[in-house]
Design a protein that fits this description.
alpha+beta, single chain
Length: 90
């Protein structure tokens, strides 16, 4: 099962404006935000990402609801976090 997971933009990379450092449950990784080029993004914004790509900008309520649901699905969420921790798109 593949899941979109919420995370917070920590930094937009200065030399690659299509990449951002994103924190997801304590794991910080580079995520491609190029699909959201029409959406102004800044550090502190919340996004929904999947396999290293930001799919949408979300609000705090949606992020909280997503995390609650993901936590409830157990192993699939744990597997997704493990995949995120092992990923490197740079």
């Amino acid at each position: 099962m593949c899941l979109g997971i919420p995370g917070e933009i920590v930094e937009i990379l200065a030399d690659r404006e299509d990449l951002a450092m994103v924190s997801v449950e304590g794991v910080t990784r580079v995520v491609n935000i190029g699909l959201l080029e029409d959406e102004p993004l800044v550090p502190g914004d919340l996004i929904l990402s999947h396999v290293g790509f930001a799919l949408s900008k979300i609000d705090e309520r949606e992020a909280k609801a997503s995390l609650e649901w993901l936590t409830g699905v157990g192993d699939a969420y744990t597997d997704e976090l493990a995949a995120l921790a092992e990923s490197d798109i740079t």
